[in-house]
Write a structure and sequence with these properties.
- The protein has one domain: Arc Repressor Mutant, subunit A.
- About 65% of the residues lie in helices and about 15% in strands.
- β2 and β3 form a beta hairpin.
Length: about 100
Amino acid sequence: MAAANSKSVMPSDDAIYGAVSALKLVADTTRLKVLFLLEQRAYNVGELCEMLSHGQPAISHHLTLLRVAGIVERSRKGKTNVYELSDLGRFAVIAARKLMAH
């Protein structure tokens, strides 16, 4: 059987950089805890702060990083921003759970 063409199998450098950046974002204890909470339901910043015993500026910063990377999504409920996992975020949680199982 012939070896696969490495150029057709290997993602582009830009794609690899994007994946590495997203994995680095998830490789943070607080951010991963946020993802596990958001796996259950959408939360606002105040609820996440209370559950994680962190200040609002810190949690807002983590959520902004995750949102910009497309890992969480933000929507409005009245005057409150609520956050939930995107499809990419769900994939990250599944991958993290599989890694923890080993």
